Amino acid sequence: MLCRVMSQPIMTDLRVGDIASSAVSFDILTNGSDIARFFEGTPDSPGVTVTREGKFFAALSQHDFLHTISRQYGLELFHRRPIEAVLGVLRYKPLLLLPSDCMIDEAVTRCLARAKNEIFDPFLVEKSGTGEI
Fold first, then answer.
1. Does the residue 96 lie in any domain?
2. Which three-class secondary structure state does DSSP give residue 132?
3. Which of 14, 41, 45, 83 shows the greatest Cβ crowding within 10 Å of its Cβ?
4. Whole-angstrom Cα distance, residue 93 to residue 118?
5. Domain limits at 107?
6. 132 falls within a domain
């Protein structure tokens, strides 16, 4: 189904799985400096996924990472340490997980229902029926 807003066609039957992009993954033992370098090179990236032994462990938003390392002594503390240390400092809240068949309008509603400081955080998309993210 298409509708027009401001003379541009917009598809209203899209699902998040239709437009989701693959997240860049880093192992939990990757140094913070490598994550910082990645975000410097890709400032539009909303975040990264963190794996442990090849399996999804956590997701880290760029905002949370940069906020953590910009604290007093943050760069010195986390630059050479594994990303696990940054995750340990963050009282890490789980990111919103949506099924791949979730309609875009529902995804927007659920994102906007999050806490004010989390509205622009990335969300995870579960691959249809696989349990994988």
1. yes
2. coil
3. 83
4. 10
5. 2-126
6. no
Residue 8: Cβ-neighbour burial (10 angstroms; 0-12, 13-18, 19+)? exposed
Q: How far is CA 15 from the centre of its chain?
A: 18
> Please, is 107 exposed, middle or buried when counting C-beta atoms within 10 Å of its C-beta (0-12, 13-18, 19+)?
buried
Domain count, the chain: 1
SS3 63: helix
Q: Name, in order, each residue with C-beta under 8 angstroms of 114's C-beta and a sequence gap of 6 or more.
A: 96, 121
Q: Give the residue, 12 or 61, on which the prediction is more confident.
A: 61
- Indicate whether 68 pLDDT > 60: yes
**What's the pTM value of the predicted model, to 2 decimals?**
0.70
At 38, the pLDDT band (50, 70, 90 cuts) reads very high
pLDDT at 5: 37
Tell me if 47 is assigned to some domain: yes
Backbone angles phi, psi at 53, to 5 degrees: 55, 40
Q: Does 75 have pLDDT greater than 70?
A: yes
CATH of the domain at 81: 3.10.580.10
